[in-house]
Design goal:
The chain is an alpha+beta fold and 139 residues long. It is built from one helix and four strands, in the order αββββ. The model has no long low-confidence stretch (mean pLDDT 86).
Amino acid sequence: MSPEVPVPCPARQRGLSLPAMLVIIVILGVVSAALVRLTATAQVAVGYEILSLRAWEAAEAGAQNAMARLFPLDNSAANCTALTLNFGAGNLNGCSVSVNCSGPVSFGGHDMYTLTSTATCSAGEALASRTLKLGARTP
């Protein structure tokens, strides 16, 4: 004698696979949407960081240009005037620099100068500005 195996009645069967699959699909959709948004936000942040670094480099270039005018290699007279640079090509395209120079102020037998270099870079609607302030003295 073998035990009787009950035959399932199709009308009484209830499946779990369809609701489980729907829940899994919804969860995967939410996770995918979150990852897309996170990636887009990270790309925007990297773009602003690059623009900010370009502005910093443009401010450095303006300060170095002003230092070369302030202390020329041919020992000619120092030129402490305002300076404006507009970069039209290369890595600093879209950047402009304004350099202000104040001085000389005599201190301890040396002439002291203050340079303020402000750079602004733009790309589309994004804008970054950096200011670099430095002091210089005659030897």
